[in-house]
Design goal:
By secondary structure, the protein is mainly beta. Helices cover 5% and strands 52% of the residues.
Length: 1070
C-alpha cells in the first residue's frame, strides 16, 4: 500500500495541468500513463514535452483509454521486453495521436549480432525480442494520427505503427520509422476513412519485412512523398567479397509498399512542385510548404516488388487521383526501384495483381516526366512493371523512365521493362519517355514490352523503346512482343515537334495472328518485325527510317513508304498477294523473299533491290528510280517480273557495286514477262563508284548493264597514282571495309585523295628535309663575318637553323617540309688556312601536303672543313656524314557506310647522308661598303634502307625497298654589304648584307620508290625532277667585343615554290 501511494504521489508531482485542460509531462517518469487517469485520477489529454519522457519497464508507455489526444514532443522508451507498446489506443476511442518533430519512440534491445565464425562477416538473426509496436490501435479509432518524429523498433513481428482496426481520420507520416527484425512492419493500416500521406523515411529490415502495408480500404487519396525501403539483406551495399556472406545475410524481405485494399482517391508517388513563383511557398496548394516536401523513393532490395498492389483475399479498386486532370488512378512522379543486388536474386519494380484477387485501376497508370520505375538484377530476372493476372487498367502512360537491367550473361538473365501476364488487361501503352531493357551479355534476353495477355491493342511511341545487350544476331532483343494478340494490334511511332528528340525503337517487334499495323511516322526503328497470318500493314512516312528485316505471313500484306522515309533490310512477304508502294523521295533498299505475289509501285522515290527476287509486277513512274546492285555473286540484282515491268518518263536506273572483284562484266538486272518504257530509262551513275563506268541496254524482256573499269586517264590520275593503281586495287579486296570505302566513292577528288593515302613517301620530301638543314648550317663557312670566338690559335662557334619548303602535287605528290638544327664547330689556325670540324643535330618533318601521312627524321652530322682567307680571297672545303633515323606514318581515314575507319601504318628505317662542298670568293672593300662574288659547289648523296609497315593489315601495309638519291649543284652569287659604326667589329659594330644569285642543279637524281602490298606485284613510283632556281639572302650582324649576334634569312626557288631557311649565330666574349 505504501509503495503504491508513493508512486502515485511521485507521478502526480511530475504532471501539470495547463489552462487548456492538457496534462503535460515535462520530466522523466518510469510509470506508464493513461488518458483516463492522468489528471490525478481524472481523464485528460496528454502532452509529453521536449524535456519530458515516459520510460516504463514493460507494457504500454502511454494508453488512450478515453476520448482524448496524445502529443509526444519528448521521448517514449521501453527496453528489453516482448509485447511492448509506445502509444496504444483502445478500441472505440476518439482523439488524436501525434508524435511531433522532436518526439522519439524507442523500443530496443541490447542484442547485437557478432562474427561467430570469424570469417569477417556478422552472423545471427536481426533481433531476439518480438511483438513490439511504436504506435498501435486495438480496433477502431477516430482522429488523426501523425508521426513527424522518430520511431525506432527492434524485434521480430514488430511494427513502427500498426493499426488494429479502422481509422476515421487522416494518417500522416513525415517523420522517420525504422523497424529491424523478421516480419518487420514500418507502417501497417487497416480501413482509413480519410487520406493517407507517407512522407519522411520508413525502413523495414528483416525476413518478409514491409515498409508500408495498407491492408484495408482508403476512402481518400494515398500520397507517397518520402523514402520507403524494405529488405531482408544485412547489407544494401555489397561488400568487397560477397561470397563470404551467409544465408542469414541474404534473407528476402517483402514489398516496400503493399496496397491490399481500395483507394478511392487514387495513388500518387509525388515530388515537390516546380518552383515557378518566388512568392508562393505552396504552389501545389497541399497545405505543406514546398521546401518541406521531398520526392517519393520506394525501394526494395531483394526479389520482392518495391510496390505491390493487390490481394489474395479481396478485389482492389484504385480510383482516379483528383486535381490532376488526367483521370489516372496511379501516378508515379517519384522513383520506384526493385534491386536484386546479389547473385541469384531477381529484381522487381512494381507488381499489380497476380495475387488471386482482381485489381482495377481507374483511368490508367501514369509515370510522369520526373518518374521512374526500375528493376535491377545481378544475373537473373529483372522486371520493372508486372501487370499480373486479374489486373485491369485501360492505359499505361509513360513520360519518364521504365527500365530493367540484368548484368548476367546466362540464359536466365532476362530483363523485362513491362510485362502484361496472361489474365492481365491493358488496352493501350503510350510512351513519350524511355522504356528500356538491357541484359548483360550475348546469352541473356532483353524485352522492353511483352504482352502475354493478348489484350494490348495499341502501342503509341513518341519516345524511346529499347531492348539491347543480347547477341545481336539472336532473337532475344525484343522491343515489343504482341504475339499473344490474335485480334489485331497497332504500333504507332508518332511524329514529334521540331526540336524534340526523334522517337526510336531498338529491338525486334512481334505481332500475333490478327490484322496488325506498324505505322512509323517519325524517328527510327532498328530491329526485325514479325507479322502473323493476318492482313498486315507496315507504313513509313515523314523522315522515318527502318533498319532491319520485315517478315509477313501468308495474308494480303502491304508496305508503304512515303515522304523521305527509308527502309533498309530484307522484306519477306510470305507468298501472299501483297503490295509495296513507294512515293515522294522514299527509299526501299534491301532484298525480297517470297514475293512472287508482290506488286511494286514506285511513284517517285527509289526501289533499290539487291539479290535475286521474283515479283508479280513493277511500275516505275513520276521520275522514280530503280536501284540495282551489280555483282556477279549472290547479292547482285536479278529481278524477275512474271507480269509487266513498266517505266514512265524520266525514270532512272541507279547503279551500285558491292565488290571490286565481281564488278566488271555484263549484268542482267531485270527480266520481265513484258517490258514497256525501257527507252525512258537513263542510267544514273551517281551511285556507281567513280572507279567504274556503266552502259545500259535493253531488249524485249531484259535490262542489261555492262560495267568496265575506267582507265587511269579517265580517272584523272597523275603518274604516281597511275603507277600504283593496279597494285592498290589488287590489295584492297583483302579487307572488306577498305574495299567498301572505294566502292562508296562517287567523286573524283575524293577518289584521288583516298588513293593518295595508299602511297608511300616517294615525292622527294625526305631528301629535301635532310639536305636543307645540312646546307643551312654549312653556310656558316661561306660568311666571312659570321660570329667566331677567337681564342688565339683556335676558335669556335655555335650555329642554329630552321627551314621549310613545299612542293605541289605535280606528277607525284605534294609535301610540306620543316625542320630545325643546332651545330657546334671549332678550328685551329695554320699558315695554309684553318682546319676544323663540327657536329650537329638536325630534326625534320616531311608531311604530305594532301593528307596526314608524314616522315620524321633525326640526324647526327659530323663534318671536317678547311677554309682560307688571304687578303680579299676566300676559299673553303667541307665533307660530312650523317646517320639518319626515319619514322614514317601513313593514316588511312575514311567512312564506310555508318562506320568511321582510321588505320595507322608505321615504318622505321635508317639512312646515311654524305656531302661534299666548297666555294671560292673575293671580298672587296671600299670604305664601309663591300662586294663579294662567290662560286660554290655542293654534292649530297642519301642512301635509305628498305622497311616493312605494320598496323594496317594485308590491304594497307607496304613493303618498301631501299633507294639512293644524289644531287650535284653549282651556285653563283654576289653579296653587297655595308658596315655601320666603323670598321672595327669589336667596337659597337653593325653590318647588313644582301646576297643574290642562282643555284643550278647539274647532276644527280632522286631515287625511285619500289613498294608492294602483301603478296602483291611491286610497283615503282618515280619522283619529279628537282629544279634549279634563284636564291636570295639577307644577313645582319651586331655586337662588340663582349657580345655578338648574327642572323641569315635565305629564300630559294624550289619546285615552283619558295624554300626558306633562317640561320642564327651567337658569340659571347670571354
Amino acid at each position: 500500500m505504501r509503495n503504491t501511494l508513493l508512486a502515485t504521489t511521485c507521478l502526480a508531482a511530475l504532471l501539470s495541468t495547463t489552462a487548456q485542460a492538457e496534462t503535460t509531462i515535462t520530466t522523466e517518469i518510469t510509470a506508464p500513463v493513461r488518458t483516463s487517469t492522468v489528471k490525478s485520477g481524472a481523464p485528460d489529454d496528454i502532452k509529453i514535452t521536449s524535456t519530458g519522457s515516459v520510460k516504463p519497464t514493460n507494457g504500454a508507455a502511454v494508453t488512450i483509454d478515453s476520448n482524448h489526444k496524445v502529443i509526444n514532443e519528448g521521448t517514449i522508451e521501453i527496453g528489453n521486453v516482448n509485447g511492448a507498446r509506445g502509444i496504444v489506443a483502445n478500441a472505440g476511442t476518439v482523439g488524436s495521436i501525434t508524435n511531433a518533430a522532436t518526439g522519439k519512440i524507442i523500443i530496443n534491445e541490447p542484442y547485437a549480432p557478432t562474427d561467430i565464425d570469424n570469417d569477417g562477416d556478422i552472423d545471427g538473426v536481426f533481433a531476439l525480442s518480438s511483438n513490439r509496436v511504436g504506435i498501435a490501435t486495438l480496433d477502431a479509432f477516430t482522429g488523426n494520427i501523425v508521426n513527424s518524429g522518430a520511431i525506432a523498433i527492434e524485434g521480430n513481428d514488430s511494427a513502427g505503427i500498426r493499426l488494429g482496426g479502422p481509422l476515421t481520420g487522416n494518417f500522416t507520416n513525415d517523420g522517420t520509422v525504422t523497424v529491424l527484425g523478421d516480419r518487420a512492419l514500418g507502417v501497417g493500416l487497416q480501413d482509413v476513412t480519410g487520406n493517407v500521406r507517407l512522407a519522411g523515411t520508413i525502413t523495414a529490415t528483416g525476413l518478409d519485412a514491409t515498409a508500408a502495408r495498407l491492408a484495408g480500404n482508403i476512402t481518400g487519396a494515398l500520397v507517397v512523398q518520402g523514402s520507403l525501403t524494405a529488405t531482408g539483406f544485412r547489407f544494401t551495399t555489397p561488400p568487397a567479397d560477397p561470397s563470404k556472406l551467409d544465408a542469414d545475410d541474404l534473407l528476402i524481405g517483402g514489398p516496400a509498399l503493399s496496397v491490399e485494399g481500395n483507394v478511392t482517391g487514387g495513388i500518387i508517388l509525388a515530388v515537390p512542385p516546380k518552383d515557378s513563383s518566388a512568392t508562393d511557398n505552396d504552389e501545389d496548394k497541399d497545405g505543406i510548404a514546398d521546401d518541406k516536401e521531398s520526392s517519393a523513393a520506394v525501394r526494395s532490395f531483394g526479389s520482392a516488388a518495391a510496390v505491390r498492389i493487390g490481394s489474395a483475399t479481396q478485389s482492389v479498386t484504385i480510383g482516379p487521383v483528383a486535381g490532376t486532370g488526367t483521370g489516372l488512378g496511379l501516378i508515379i512522379d517519384g522513383g520506384v526501384i526493385g534491386n536484386g543486388l546479389y547473385a541469384g536474386k531477381d529484381g522487381n519494380g512494381m507488381q499489380i495483381g497476380g495475387l488471386g484477387g482482381a485489381v482495377t485501376i481507374a483511368g490508367g497508370i501514369g509515370i510522369g516526366a520526373t518518374g521512374s520505375v526500375s528493376a535491377l538484377s545481378k544475373d537473373v530476372a529483372a522486371t520493372a512493371i508486372r501487370i499480373g493476372s486479374g489486373a485491369t487498367t485501360p492505359e499505361l502512360r509513360n513520360a519518364g523512365k521504365i527500365e530493367a537491367t540484368t548484368a548476367g550473361n546466362v540464359a536466365g538473365s532476362v530483363a523485362t521493362a513491362i510485362l502484361v501476364e496472361a489474365g492481365g488487361n491493358v488496352a493501350l501503352i503510350r510512351n513519350s519517355g524511355l522504356i528500356a531493357a538491357k541484359t548483360g551479355g550475348d546469352n541473356g534476353t532483353a524485352q522492353a514490352i511483352v504482352d502475354l495477355s493478348g489484350t494490348v491493342a495499341t502501342i503509341e511511341n513518341s519516345g524511346t523503346i529499347s531492348a539491347t545487350g543480347a547477341l545481336a544476331t539472336s532473337d532475344r532483343n525484343v522491343a515489343i512482343d504482341l504475339s499473344a494478340n490474335a485480334a489485331g494490334a497497332t504500333v504507332k511511332q508518332t511524329a514529334v515537334a521540331p526540336g524534340v528528340t526523334a522517337p526510336s525503337i531498338v529491338g525486334d517487334i512481334r505481332f500475333g495472328g490478327g490484322n496488325d499495323v506498324f505505322d512509323i511516322a517519325d524517328g527510327s526503328v532498328k530491329g526485325n518485325s514479325f507479322f502473323g497470318g493476318g492482313n498486315n500493314r507496315l507504313a513509313l512516312s515523314g523522315d522515318a527510317t527502318y533498319a532491319g528485316n520485315a517478315r509477313f505471313g501468308a495474308g494480303t500484306d502491304s508496305m508503304t513508304l512515303a515522304g523521305t522515309s527509308k527502309f533498309t533490310g530484307a522484306a519477306d512477304f510470305g507468298g501472299g498477294t501483297d503490295t509495296l508502294s513507294i512515293g515522294g523521295t522514299a527509299i526501299f533498299s534491301g532484298s525480297l523473299a517470297n514475293a512472287q505475289g508482290l506488286a511494286v509501285s514506285a511513284v517517285g522515290g527509289t526501289f533499290d533491290v539487291t539479290g535475286a527476287a521474283r515479283i508479280a509486277s513493277l511500275a516505275v513512274t513520276d521520275k522514280a528510280t530503280l536501284g540495282v546492285l551489280l555483282d556477279a555473286g549472290s547479292t547482285g540484282t536479278a529481278l524477275q517480273v512474271t507480269g509487266n515491268a513498266s517505266f514512265g518518263a524520266e525514270s532512272k536506273l541507279a547503279l551500285r557495286l558491292s565488290s571490286i572483284e565481281q564488278a566488271e562484266g555484263r549484268h542482267i538486272v531485270l527480266t520481265a514477262g513484258t517490258l514497256t518504257g525501257a527507252s525512258n530509262l537513263t542510267a544514273s551513275q551517281t551511285l556507281l563508284p567513280f572507279l567504274y563506268k556503266g552502259t545500259l541496254t535493253s531488249n524485249a524482256t531484259q535490262l542489261i548493264v555492262d560495267v568496265s573499269r575506267k582507265s587511269t586517264s579517265d580517272l584523272g590520275l597523275n603518274r604516281s597514282e597511275a603507277g600504283a593503281f593496279d597494285a592498290v586495287f589488287d590489295a584492297v579486296v583483302a579487307d572488306q571495309k577498305i574495299e567498301d570505302v572505294f566502292l562508296g566513292i562517287t567523286d573524283g577528288g575524293q577518289f584521288r585523295s583516298q588513293l593518295g593515302q595508299m602511297l608511300p613517301e616517294h615525292e622527294g620530301g625526305v631528301f629535301e628535309t635532310v639536305t636543307s638543314g645540312s646546307r643551312a648550317l654549312s653556310r656558316h663557312l661561306q660568311d666571312p663575318n659570321a660570329p667566331f670566338q677567337d681564342e688565339g690559335k683556335w676558335g669556335y662557334w655555335v650555329n642554329q637553323a630552321v627551314w621549310g619548303t613545299s612542293k605541289s602535287v605535280g606528277d607525284t605528290a605534294s609535301y610540306d617540309v620543316s625542320g630545325w638544327g643546332i651545330g657546334l664547330g671549332a678550328e685551329i689556325k695554320s699558315d695554309v688556312g684553318n682546319f676544323g670540324g663540327s657536329i650537329a643535330f638536325l630534326s625534320g618533318k616531311d608531311g604530305n601536303g594532301s593528307n596526314a601521312n608524314e616522315v620524321s627524321t633525326s640526324q647526327f652530322e659530323g663534318a671536317l672543313h678547311w677554309r682560307l682567307r688571304s687578303k680579299g680571297f676566300m676559299a673553303n672545303a667541307r665533307v660530312s656524314g650523317a646517320p639518319i633515323k626515319m619514322k614514317g606514318t601513313r593514316i588511312f581515314s575514311a567512312e564506310a557506310g555508318a562506320d568511321d575507319i582510321e588505320k595507322t601504318m608505321k615504318g622505321k628505317w635508317d639512312g646515311t647522308l654524305w656531302s661534299a662542298s666548297g666555294s671560292l670568293a673575293y671580298d672587296a672593300h671600299a670604305g664601309g661598303i663591300t662586294i663579294r662574288p662567290m662560286v660554290a659547289v655542293d654534292y649530297f648523296k642519301l642512301t635509305e634502307k628498305g622497311y616493312q609497315e605494320t598496323g594496317g593489315g594485308n590491304a594497307l601495309d607496304l613493303n618498301v625497298l631501299g633507294r639512293d638519291s644524289d644531287e650535284l649543284a653549282v651556285s653563283g652569287t654576289a653579296a653587297l654589304g655595308m658596315d655601320f659604326g666603323g670598321l672595327d667589329q669589336y667596337d659597337g659594330w653593325t653590318r647588313f648584307e644582301i646576297e643574290g644569285g642562282r643555284r643550278q642543279i647539274v647532276g644527280g637524281t632522286l631515287g625511285s620508290t619500289t613498294a608492294s602490298f602483301k603478296d602483291g606485284t611491286p610497283f615503282t613510283l618515280i619522283p619529279d625532277d628537282r629544279t634549279s632556281g634563284w636564291v636570295g639572302r639577307l644577313r645582319g650582324i651586331a655586337g662588340n667585343s663582349a657580345f655578338q649576334v648574327a642572323g641569315e634569312m635565305s629564300a630559294e626557288e624550289q619546285q615552283n615554290h619558295i624554300g626558306w631557311a633562317f640561320r642564327a649565330s651567337l658569340r659571347v666574349g670571354l
